[in-house]
């Protein structure tokens, strides 16, 4: 086949790709106008997520962060499961990138239903988009309901302590709280899947905290990075770090029985096991990482 023929073939394929995307966009707009889409009890709008949010995030995931996914086979094909991950990056985009990474890499295209902090849902626009993309308030009741309904649920137990920690403490897990996520998994009798994200710590290296500003705006912290606020809006562009997301082997809870959720010592032990698994995986991935950006 000649180079000219190859060029024509590539051009035709690109043209077909654009035509398909344009057609999908038109169909999406028609469904929105007609109201021909479903929203569940938690506000999750699958159609909106697939056709508006995911395409934008996919550019970040594939072209900017070049996310590498490992251990996707540890996420079950169906049924409830609780994914527990480290939290980092100053701006908490690690959760949504993980959600997209799972959907794109999993054979069944599973959606991660994220549990978020109160602040997320108090923010204008952000709160509405979070609901539409499958997030809900981090409460045991909602977590158990989703898990019993066969959903894959994600929790980041470090919370703001994780995303807002100084750069010098990168990849060192903060406290996991009282293990509420373990109780929810035990009661629902679903496995816990440890998740370790490497790369997000370098997106916005936090070298300082404007505590007075944080108090004024009601935020948990106000970060100072090498480029923000020095460069203004340009400083908000994330650094193109190379990400690796690794899913560990599921930790069984069904064999413990639902009553075990009321045993604080057992809950603490499982919580510590999950935390230690994530921490050790972070260290092992860091050892094999060639570079922050490659």
Automatic annotation (TrEMBL):
SMART domains cross-referenced by the UniProt entry: PlsC (SM00563)
Molecular function in Gene Ontology: acyltransferase activity
Family matches, as Pfam families: Acyltransferase
This protein's GO CC annotations: membrane
Residue ranges of every copy of the Phospholipid/glycerol acyltransferase domain listed in the record: 81-200
Segments forming a coiled coil: none
CDD domains: LPLAT_MGAT-like
PANTHER family (UniProt xref): MONOACYLGLYCEROL_DIACYLGLYCEROL O-ACYLTRANSFERASE, TRANSMEMBRANE PROTEIN 68
Protein name from the UniProt record: Phospholipid/glycerol acyltransferase domain-containing protein
Native organism: Janibacter hoylei PVAS-1
């Amino acid at each position: 086949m000649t180079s000219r023929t190859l060029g024509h073939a590539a051009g035709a394929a690109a043209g077909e790709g654009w035509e398909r995307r344009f057609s999908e966009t038109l169909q999406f707009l028609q469904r929105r106008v007609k109201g021909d889409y479903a929203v569940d009890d938690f506000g999750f709008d699958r159609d909106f997520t697939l056709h508006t949010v995911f395409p934008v995030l996919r550019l970040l995931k594939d072209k900017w962060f070049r996310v590498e996914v490992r251990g996707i086979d540890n996420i079950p094909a169906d049924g409830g499961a609780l994914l527990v991950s480290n939290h980092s990056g100053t701006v908490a985009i690690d959760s949504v990138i993980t959600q997209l990474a799972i959907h794109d890499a999993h054979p069944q295209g599973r959606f991660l239903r994220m549990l978020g902090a109160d602040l997320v849902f108090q923010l204008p626009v952000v709160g509405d988009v979070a609901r539409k993309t499958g997030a809900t308030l981090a409460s045991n009741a909602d977590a158990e309901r989703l898990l019993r309904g066969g959903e894959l649920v994600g929790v980041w137990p470090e919370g703001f302590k994780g995303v807002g920690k100084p750069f010098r403490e990168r990849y060192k897990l903060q406290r996991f709280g009282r293990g509420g996520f373990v109780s929810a998994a035990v009661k629902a009798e679903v496995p816990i899947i440890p998740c370790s994200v490497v790369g997000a710590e370098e997106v916005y290296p936090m070298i300082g905290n404007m505590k007075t500003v944080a108090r004024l705006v009601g935020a948990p912290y106000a970060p100072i990075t090498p480029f923000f606020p020095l460069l203004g809006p340009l400083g908000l562009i994330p650094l193109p770090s190379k990400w690796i997301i690794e899913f560990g082997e599921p930790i069984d809870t069904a064999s413990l029985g639902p009553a075990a959720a009321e045993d604080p010592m057992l809950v603490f032990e499982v919580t510590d096991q999950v935390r230690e698994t994530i921490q050790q995986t972070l260290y092992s991935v860091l050892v094999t990482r060639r570079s922050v950006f490659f």
